[in-house]
Design brief:
The chain contains 11 helices and 10 strands. Helix 4 (113-141) packs parallel to helix 6 (162-182). The strands form 2 sheets. An 8-stranded mixed sheet has the order 3-2-1-4-5-6-7-8, with helices on both faces. A two-stranded antiparallel sheet has the order 9-10. It has 2 domains: 11-247, NAD(P)-binding Rossmann-like Domain (Rossmann fold, 3-Layer(aba) Sandwich); 265-317, no CATH class. It is α/β, with parallel strands linked by helices and 318 residues long. Strand 9 and strand 10 (316-317) form a beta hairpin. The protein binds 1,4-dihydronicotinamide adenine dinucleotide. 1,4-dihydronicotinamide adenine dinucleotide (NAI) binds at residues 15-16, 18-22, 39-43, 45, 47, 54, 75-76, 99-102, 122, 126, 149, 151, 194-196, 198-201.
Length: 318
């Protein structure tokens, strides 16, 4: 059997840990020896009101089994105060789980500026502020682990969630850039798109499905990614109900055209099948995986693109 992955001596901040997924992470880290800052503003699903009760209850649960935890009631928008709580209580900060979140679902036609701005403030600015405050500690100690929380809605889009999905995909690119900038300092950053039973999903799923989607089924991957022995960084995972998978980008082989005055919209239309064909795809992983200048050199030697009467698309001259 593999040795238990432990977190003794490590300090973890879990944002939005007063319920749902965050509570499950906080308990799992504490069970494996970590010092945990249980952050929660105690708001409603839509982000209204505030209460210290949610965070206090989870701290009590952790203390009841002999774990180490303190509460913090700041909004993630005041990330520096949350990190300050960690450093004051435990003398260090090692792991950040950016988990706090709210929903303001509305069709795009009905979405207000406030629905948009609040979602960006909590998910994107909140993750930024907490991570920004921890970053200098991570750099100095040459160790840091960050988990950001995306969503399937962010990857694929979802009706009524233009604000939420935009915020969630922003966290994927945030994660990837932090992984690049943190690599030389042993700072790893990964992002998850979980699916789990919580107050966020309890109204949209039947009870037997919710039973299969326990938040406790998400924690193991989060803990694995945060362990000091884990090398994975910059990656996106979709998981829930015991399923765990990594996602990556796929790019069609694409079409190469002579890049001159004969490259017209009609030329693109005529080769649309080639542009969108995913047989023999590439799996680009960084900005430089597409060398446009090399492709341009290759394209220069192609014959001019067909024009006028030679070019037919859907039976029409284009
Ligand atoms: P939840 O509503 O049970 O927990 C979110 C917690 O964040 C709440 O306790 C809330 O008080 C807290 N919070 C909200 N705004 C805050 C702020 N400004 N500062 C500090 N705390 C704040 O929701 P759940 O399901 O546990 O979600 C956790 C994360 O996972 C969220 O980021 C959510 O978007 C994401 N997620 C959840 C999915 C699911 O299936 N449950 C699916 C995809 C993503």
């Amino acid at each position: 059997m593999a040795a238990e992955l432990r977190f003794d001596g490590r300090t973890v901040v879990v944002t939005g840990a007063g319920g749902g997924l965050g509570r499950a992470y906080a308990i799992a880290f504490a069970q494996r020896g970590a010092n945990v800052v249980v952050n929660d503003l105690g708001v409603s699903r839509a982000g209204d009101g505030t209460s210290s009760a949610a965070a206090d209850k989870v701290v009590e649960e952790i203390k009841n089994f002999g774990g180490k935890a303190v509460a913090n009631y700041n909004s993630v928008e005041d990330g520096d105060k949350i990190v300050e709580t960690a450093v004051k209580a435990f003398g260090r900060i090692d792991i950040i789980i950016n988990n706090a979140g709210i929903l303001r679902d509305r069709s795009f036609a009905r979405m207000t500026d406030q629905d948009w701005d609040l979602l960006m403030a909590v998910h994107v600015r909140g993750s930024y502020k907490v991570t920004k405050a921890a970053w200098p500690f991570f750099k100095k100690q040459k160790f840091g682990r960050i988990i950001n929380t995306a969503s399937a809605a962010g990857i694929y889009g979802n009706y009524g969630q233009a604000n939420y999905s935009a915020a969630k995909l922003a966290l994927v690119s945030f994660t990837r850039t932090l992984a690049i900038e943190g690599a030389s300092s042993n700072i790893h950053s990964n992002v998850i798109a979980p699916i789990a039973a919580s107050r966020m999903t309890e109204t949209v799923m039947p009870p037997d499905v919710l039973e299969a989607l326990k938040p406790e089924f998400i924690s193991p991957l989060v803990l694995y990614l945060c362990h000091e022995s884990t090398q994975e960084s910059g990656s996106l995972f979709e998981l829930g109900a015991g399923f765990v998978a990594k996602l990556r980008w796929e790019r069609s082989k694409g079409a190469v055209f002579k890049a001159d005055e004969t490259l017209t919209p009609g030329v693109i239309a005529a080769k649309w099948e080639e542009v969108t064909n995913f047989q023999n795809p590439d799996y680009p992983n960084k900005t430089t995986d597409l060398n446009l200048l090399e492709l341009y050199e290759q394209a220069k030697n192609l014959p001019s693109n067909p024009k006028g009467d030679d070019l037919k698309f859907d039976g029409k001259v284009v």
